[in-house]
Amino acid sequence: MSAVVTVTELTKRYRGVTALDGVSFSLAEHRIHGLLGRNGAGKTTLMQILTAQNFATSGEVSVFGQHPYENEQVLSRISFIKESQTYPSHLRVTHVLRAARLVYPGWDEELAQRLVDVFQLPRGRNVRKLSRGMLSALGIVVGLASRAPLTFFDEPYLGLDAVARQLFYDHLLADYAEHPRTIVLSTHLIDEVSDLIEHVLLIDQGRLLLDVEAEALRGQVVTVSGPVAAVDEFTRTGTELHRASLGGTARATVRGDFGPAAHDRARSLGLDLEASSLQDIVVRLTTSHNGHAAGSTAAADKEAVR
Amino acid sequence: MNRALTVARLQFVGWRSVVGWPWGILALSFSINLALFSAMNENDDFEPTTGGLMSIYVVMFVASINAITQEFPFALGLGVSRRSFYLGNVIHFAGQAISYAAVLYLLAVIEEATDGWGVNLRFFGVPFPLVEHPVLRFLAFAIPFLLLGFIGIAIALVFKRWGVNGLLMLSTVALAAIGGLVVLATWRGWWSAIGGWFADQPGWALLVGWPALLTLLLAGLSYLTIRRATP
Amino acid sequence: MEDGRPIFLQIAELLENSILDGTLAEESQVPSTNELAAFHRINPATAAKGVNKLVDDGTLYKKRGIGMFVSPGARAKLRGRRRDEFARQYVRPLLTEARKLGIEPAELKSMIDTWEEGR
């Protein structure tokens, strides 16, 4: 599969703050990528640079094989929906949709109108008078109906309730299935999207911690609990990310290449084994290097996954 | 270029307010003046112009600031390049300047033909009777639109790229420069020469020529500034 | 999708279950990957991976341009394979747990009989 985005040693420094620190990865075509990480991890900066809205301090960025800066050929194939998007204050909802229709070559007006109904957006209302959730919904409508070959959704759901978010996921999946394209979904509601995304990028403090297939990650991180000695024995086969103990009992989160055999091994050691959700994995990885975990630097983590 | 035309149209999606504001305010200013002049008795002193025409230029100036503070982040969010955005704005503003100037020119002609709307009101007339040639008179309406537009764009861009500090710095430098020149001119006794120079300039140069030159300079500097601006 | 196992395995297993309980008859058409993806709210590529796993092991077969169908004889084959897995998945943990509690195999058998009668 060809790479739509290639990033090499990308670094971005604002006065004294390193927002991105030597990030390298590539995004394969026609997949839904999850860009995960805590607030302030560097996700938005990364997407701003990929869409030429911001400038890199060093490193290389290639989108559709070219640099995106002032590159109409590249930019017209990108849709970047961000939580902080502002609209000219005199525009109404219909105006925003008309503007998007002018700009995006692949715009689907019928889909846009259908989504406006789905999200119950008031067509004639001024953008200034939209609620936070309505603004998010407007962004989602633009992002989906633009059918851009490369679509970024940066935390697109602020102010949306669970029902509206589920509507977003459903329509995203349905439209993606019919019109495959490369989608980058940046979010910290990991549980909600963990089944949607095919590829995971995890950023923490400007560094790339994970660059891995979502399916490969599933079952790679498990939590075992039981007698300390047995837990020690089990964790020797992987990288321990976290441990809590109470008396002679311990619970450890371990990362490794765990197949069905590992389940049997845990059982024969008298341990309870539980697979970790993507959300747990992310939480463990983004907190573990604060100290107490053994040998889990970012580099070591990346190696263990591959 | 196609993309720039798209941007020019993009600026026009909310055309009601784009067109409504300048002309609405001008109409308001005009009707107030008209009411005043009809209420007044025959005016002995001939007013060169009321100055009410300035209102439409002020609205356009504000619109040009909005173009950078509001339209720029929106357009870039829609995947428009800075170059296309800028060119689209030039087309958008030039288009408005030309069409608005044409309307103002027409209104000035009507004003003259009706002896100031029957009440000796000079609202649309160009203040300098020096400009006689029709094309130059038309340009005297159009160029100030562009000049104010690009002053607005330039100021907003300085704010966009360098924030409040940038604006303060710019004002300080401008003040110091102007103040320095005034002091220099006073000290060297250049004022009569300067006055003479202005007096020697034909009306078209003061209303059209020099503003056009300044507009071009600002347009060029603005383009260089927007190339590295972030929304 | 609930547990931590790869989703495509879960999809494959759900389809297998439908074949085993007769919901999906042999020679009948299987839902498309897009339908599966929308229904389970998962990535279509993942759904396709699950379906392809069943194609690879012969449970499903592809009719060009139409879709996926359940292979003739798939049900019997699946049942055989599941029986083998049954021992590993259920009997072994049953025995492990029983041993922890000191339940002898003979006692376990009589417990199973009692439960079966009480149904």
Shape of chain B: globular
Biggest chain pair interface: A-B, 32 and 26 residues
Number of helical stretches of at least 4 residues of chain B: 8
CATH-assigned homologous superfamily of the largest domain in chain C: Winged helix-like DNA-binding domain superfamily/Winged helix DNA-binding domain
Task: Please state how the strands of the largest beta sheet of chain C are arranged side by side.
Answer: 1-2
* Count of individual beta strands of chain C: 2
The chain-level structural class of chain C is mainly alpha
Question: Uncertain regions of chain B: pLDDT < 50 for 5+ in a row?
Answer: none
| CATH topology (fold) name of the largest domain in chain C | Arc Repressor Mutant, subunit A
Helix content range of the residues of chain C, please? 55-70%
Percent of residues in β-strands of chain C = 5-15%
What's the main sheet of chain B like? none
Mean pLDDT of chain B: 88
What is the end-to-end distance of chain C? 31 Å
**Major sheet description of chain C:** 2 strands, antiparallel
Q: How far apart are the termini of chain B?
A: 22 Å
| Helix run count of chain C | 5
H-E order of chain C? HHHEEHH
